[in-house]
Each structure stands twice: as C-alpha cells, then as structure tokens.
Amino acid sequence: MKTIRLKAGKERSLLRRHPWVFDGAIERGRADAGETVRVESAEGRFLAWGAYAPSSRIRVRIWSFDEAERIDAAFFERRLRAAVALRERLAIDSDGVRLVHGESDGLPGLVVDRYGQTLVAQFGSSGAERHKATIADALLRVTGLRRLYERSDASVRALEGLPPATGWLRGDGPTECTIHENGWRLSLDVAEGHKTGYYLDQRDSRRACAELTRRFGLGEVLNCYSYTGGFTVAALAGGARHVTSIDSSGPALQRAQRNVALNGFDAARCTFWDADVNASLRALLAEGRRFDAIVLDPPKLAPSAAHVERAARAYKDVNRLGFKLLQPGGVLFTYSCSGAVGVELFQKIVASAAHEAGVDAVILARHGGAPDHPTGLAFPEGEYLKGLVLWRRA
Ligand code: SAH
Questions:
Q1: Which residue, of 50, 68, 243, 254, has the fewest CB within 10 Å?
Q2: Domains 3-64 and 199-392 belong to one CATH topology
C-alpha cells in the first residue's frame, strides 16, 4: 500500500471529513491512477484511504476515514446498498432516481441514475474508473437490474486525464426509456440526452410548478431552457392554457413535443422555439407579449469561481427580461445550477434584476436539488442547484 504524506497543517480538512486532497497539500508520495493510497498527516498519523489521481489538481479522493476499512468489492457493495436504501426511504414519486450522488454518498466521482429498468453510470474520477467492473457488478446485485449504460463523457473526466467512454457496460437493448415522474410520462435517451439523459435534480421544482400553475390559475406559460419539456408537461398538467418552450437544442425540443403527446395533451396548447433564450425574450418583449408564469432554468453559466462575475451579469440579464415579461400577479421560477454562485449571491442577482425591471416581487419558495441529490455536510462543493419562486405583486 502506497502512502501519501501531507504537509504540516494540511490534515485539517480531512479531519472534518472533507473528501478531497489537493496537489499542493502533499509533502510526498505518489501512485498509479486510481490506486488506493493511505493518506497520513505530517506526523505519520492515519487520516484516510483514498484514490490517487496523478494528473488532477484533486490528487486524492477519499473512500473512507476508517482505518479498519478495506477498499474492496465488499466496500463498494456496502456503500451502494446504503445509497440505494436511502432512496427507498425517500419515497420518490418517480422511477427516475439518482441512486448515487458522488462524494455525498461516499463514492467520489461516481454518479448512478436509474431510469425504470435501466441504470446509467458516470465514472468521473480515476478511483471510480479503476473499480469500474467491481462497481458495475455490485450495482446489478444491489438493484436486481440487468442493464447498465455508461455515460462517462462529462468534461470532468478530462481533468482526471481520462478519455470519454460510453456504451453498455452490462446488458444491452434500446437506449430510449420512459419514466413516470409525478404521475407524468417522460421519455429520454440515455445515450443521447444531456448528463445521463434527464435532469432528475429538478423533479420537485417541476412538481411545484404544476401545483402553483393550478393554484394560481396561471394560463400563459413561458418555459425557457426547456430541454425535453419537463416543466412544459408540468405546466400543462397544472392546467396552463398555453406553454411556449424555448431551447437551443433541436433534438431536445423534438423530444419535448413527444413528451407532450405522451401525456395526452393537445399539441395546440404548445409552441416550441428552437432559439437562443436571450434573443427570444427580447423579441417577445418587443412584441408586447406577457406571461402568467415563466421558468428560467439555464445551463451552468459559471463553470468555476473565476467565471462568477460574468455569469452574474448573464443571470441578471435573463432574469430582468423575465421580470419584464411577467404579468402582475404572475409567478417566476428562476434557477441556477452553478455551484460557484451561492444561494445568497443568486438572490442578490435576482433582486437587482427585479429592481432594474421595476418589478416588486416576493419569494414564495426556495428550491434546491431533489433529495436523491443529497449534499454532504462536510462537502459544500456538492451544493449546486438553487431556485427562487417569485410572485410579482398584482
Ligand atoms: N429545465 C430543464 C433542464 C434545462 S437544462 C428540465 O427540467 O429538464 C438547460 C437547457 O438549456 C439545455 O436543454 C440546453 O440545450 C439549453 N440551452 C443552453 N443555452 C441556451 C441558450 N442560449 N438558449 C436556449 N437554450 C439554451
């Protein structure tokens, strides 16, 4: 077993169970990609077992803080069982569920989503990559499922020096799946879709959108960055008269159309725009259009702390346009999935957007990732999705 010795004082974050060791904290020691290493303090005291990543700034990701634990097949099966058992207790109203959420489930770099009878995994770290076969076998045992598709094509792989990898790892068959979320049917493709196929983290926000659409009687709805129409279906289910969905991905919009049909809604209640949201909002304003509800769920605009300032301006712009298009008495559902933009900053950005639009609004609810995307208390980096539901005073 190879040992990684930290510099003096660099053990503090590990003692608080933060699961990363950065390259700059290491005094000496190295290992192969994904190899299990013993991490110890400058005094030689055991701190943790982790996976070494030779070319990543996050040089070691921690598997366990327990010296007696061995990082073997039984370890992975225990962690996977615990993660799956948690989801069972959460009583999620969907068969599309995130079963493993990386560091926050004690499995750094590993993401596993279940879509009906199909599992999709992302191996985003050298450690997860090294134990891929063990994890794949354990996943089938723990879930009783037979099909596992790999979507290791996220950009984080490059930071770990890993090439992209996609395809069936276990079992095979069609990559298209239909899940049942909040009582709706939603189709997706695990090979072609964003992330592992769908944005499971927004499940509770979509449900809230359906409920508020119904309770507030919101008729004319604008769904910006609609992807495959999750919020579109939600608004229609909530009784919206008409929903305009905007996204710059043609294939996503085609699937959104299919998802509307799949739920038996009349296509005449929908308009789909394959366009840039910012330009579309300006065009709608110029036409004098107004909406009773608007959803703004942009992609990650701040990939890192260095991008926060530029992202803040982009969030403010789109929210200002959103407020201007919102009818008095209407509801804005606005989100950010940039980890680098914290909850407080996001609220400030949205508040300035409202101010610039000359709109008086109150917060009806705060949204975050659905509970199958838990955040480790010692791992604030895991927190990324935040949202505000705002009511424009009538
Ligand atoms: N709300 C969706 C998820 C949105 S993900 C859901 O609940 O499933 C963000 C979406 O923004 C992606 O589908 C992407 O294609 C789209 N997108 C990114 N940049 C865009 C732009 N400038 N204009 C329009 N859509 C954009």
A1: 68
A2: no
Binned at pLDDT 50, 70 and 90, residue 95 comes out as very high
CATH of domain 3-64: 2.30.130.10
Q: What local confidence, expressed as pLDDT, does residue 274 receive?
A: 98
The domain segmentation of the chain, as residue ranges, is 3-64, 73-179, 199-392
Q: How many Å lie between the centroid of ligand 1 and the Cα of residue 156?
A: 20
Looking at domain 199-392, its CATH superfamily turns out to be Vaccinia Virus protein VP39 (3.40.50.150)
Q: Is 202 in the pocket of ligand 1 (CB under 6 A)?
A: yes
Tell me what pLDDT residue 178 has. Answer: 98
For residue 353, what pLDDT is reported?
98
Q: Ligand 1 in contact with 199 (CB < 6 A)? A: yes
Q: CA 298 to CA 313: how far, in whole Å?
A: 13
Tell me the CA–centroid distance for residue 252 and ligand 1, in Å.
Answer: 9
- Probe target for ligand 1 pocket from 205, 225, 228, 301, with the most ligand atoms within 8 Å of CB: 225
pLDDT-based confidence at 172, cuts 50/70/90?
Answer: very high
Provide the whole-model pTM: 0.97
Check if CATH label 3.30.750.80 holds for domain 73-179: yes
Which sequence positions are flagged as catalytic?
337
299 lines ligand 1 (CB under 6 A): yes
Q: How far is the CA of 61 from the centre of ligand 1 (A)?
A: 31
Residue 225 CB–ligand 1 contact under 6 Å: yes
**Which of 103-107, 154-158, 211-215, 359-363 is predicted with the least confidence, judged by mean pLDDT?**
154-158
